[in-house]
Amino acid sequence: MPTKMVFTCRGHENITALHRTTLEFTKDKELSRRGDCIVGVAADFSLKELQMLVKFSKKMRIRMSIEDLKEPQVAELSEEIEGDVNPTFCDENEIVIRLGSFTSQRTLLTNTNKAAKHLNTNFVRCLKNSTVTLRITIEKME
Prior knowledge:
Layout: E1 4-10, E2 22-26, E3 38-40, H1 47-55, E4 59-67, E5 76-85, E6 94-98, E7 107-110, H2 121-127, E8 133-140
Parallel strand pairs: 2-3, 6-7
Antiparallel strand pairs: 1-8, 2-6, 4-5, 4-8, 5-7
């Protein structure tokens, strides 16, 4: 029974993280300015692995970490989000988390404590760099 999984994605110059109710990771490599909930592109998650984790979880925590930054005053920036698992999650391309309770096949977590707009401004600034790697750890909470 899996308790966590890790994947990576990268930053993009068009990341704005302004959406008030959602946050998203996508396997797409490009991003328009309209995707204001997207905080990571070129995600390398395994749907099969994620579905196994979903199957055995009711609540999850997502930790997003930007490590090995070139700025000496910032060794690591991270954010954590918690929420309720949507057992019907089954999207191969996108992971969406939501403040509210709306679900779709793309929704991994609902009733979360943060959306894109709530992320630290320094964290978001770093995500605007396409060379930045974002490490995502998703773990079962109970």
